[in-house]
Write a structure and sequence with these properties.
With 162 residues, the chain is mainly α. It has helices at 21-48, 52-80, 90-118, 124-154. It contains 4 helices and no strands. The longest helix is centred in the last third of the chain and has 31 residues, at 124-154.
């Protein structure tokens, strides 16, 4: 009886390979850029629109970007937990800085959300505290933007435009 060889599994049925650390870092970069873009867009919508449907849609996009960025940060953390690329290339240092900036932004954003939901008294002190939290969140978003720019300079192929 002839021997039956095993057939290769068609590509569409194979599980995709685990993304590399570089691919995970590139994903953080792209979602950091998109998160910053959507926050800028949301601010413009708030400044110009009186249409509640448009404002809510823009807010949902910001929320989706924030959640996706958080997912990308966790994926990078999982992939990079024990990784140290040979020679510690520049992109890796910038990726770690981007990851730290992303985590800080998410932490500040979550803190603002919790503080906003729990605000019961509208005293001057409570509103001042809330204002300070939002200023820190804005600062963390700016740091995220700067870290993304630095990462892109170290790894230009990560950009959506290439």
């Amino acid at each position: 009886m002839p021997k039956t060889g095993s057939r290769p599994i068609p590509a569409e049925l194979r599980e995709p390979a685990e993304p590399t650390l570089e691919e995970r870092a590139d994903a953080i970069y792209r979602w950091a850029v998109e998160t910053c873009h959507q926050h800028d867009r949301f601010a413009r919508v708030l400044a110009r629109s009186t249409d509640l449907v448009e404002v809510r849609a823009a807010q949902e996009l910001v929320h989706l970007c924030d959640e996706t960025l958080c997912t990308m940060l966790k994926a990078y953390e999982k992939t990079g937990a024990d990784a140290r690329p040979d020679g510690a290339p520049e992109w890796w240092h910038k990726a770690n800085a981007l990851w730290h900036a992303g985590r800080e932004y998410v932490r500040r954003h979550d803190g603002c959300d919790r503080a906003s939901r729990s605000l019961v008294l509208h005293s001057r002190e409570a509103l001042g505290e809330l204002h300070m939290r939002y200023e820190l969140e804005a600062s963390a978003l700016l740091a995220l933007r700067h870290a993304a720019d630095a990462y892109c300079r170290a790894r230009p192929q990560s950009s959506n435009h290439h």
